[in-house]
Every structure is written in structure tokens, then in C-alpha cells.
Amino acid sequence: MKPAIRSLIIALALCLASGCATVDKAQYADDFTTVAGIEIWGLQEGNPIFGDLSWPGIIAVKFAVTQGMKFTPPEVCQPGLLGLTAVGFGAFFANAATIITGAPWAGIPFILLMGIKDWEDWQADAIATCADPWASFPPGPWNEPFGDQ
Question: What are the boundaries of each domain within the chain?
């Protein structure tokens, strides 16, 4: 297994073990299938926003946007996280469908089913994450109110 893939698997496992936010799970699922498609199957990123950016650059940008969104005002944060969750899982299914069948559109039924089934949970998680962005991190001094130490 290539070191890049191994590192991504470890990051995904740590995220899932620490109880990360749904938006993080969605973005990591997209990241994993993006890296697998690029590194193992020789595919290329289909999102024109990223242009010729390498996969480490793509993941860095996505991570910064996702984590930064958590600290915006609620009227920006909540729809932003909900959108990043839907797009992350959508990209995951499109990537998986591309890898398996060669046709990204084959993933559309899966994201529709997941979106219909989980939309309210995604909304609730976005609201909770925006209310306390630190809650999804393991306990420590970073998620205690200032002055209570």
C-alpha cells in the first residue's frame, strides 16, 4: 500500500474514532476516493476549481475550507456545513462509481437515497457543530471555556 493511501486511511480512522462531525466524514470519504482514483487507478480530479492541483493540495484546500466554515457566523456556517456534507458524500459516490463503472453519474441514485434518508441528521449535526466547533474534538484544554483552567 502506498504511504499516501496509508496516511489517508489513518486520518479517516482517527476521525471516525474521535467522533468527528458529519461534514468531516463526508469530506474524508471524498478525499479517500479522490486519492485512490488518482494514485491507484491513474484518474484525474474532475472538479475544475482545483485545476492541476495535486491531490495533497486538493485535500489541504478542502480541509481549510471545511474547518474554517465551522467558525463562521451561524447564518453562514449552518448552510455551509450542510452543503459541504452533501457535496462531500455526493463526490464520494461519484468517485466510487467512476472507479467501479467508469461512469460518475452511476453514483447519483446513492447520493439521492442517502440525502433523503439523512438530510435531517445532517442539518442537526451542522447546527450542533456551528454552535460548538470544538465539540467533535477529543476532550482537552482547547474545548474548555477560557478562564476555567
Answer: 3-43+52-131
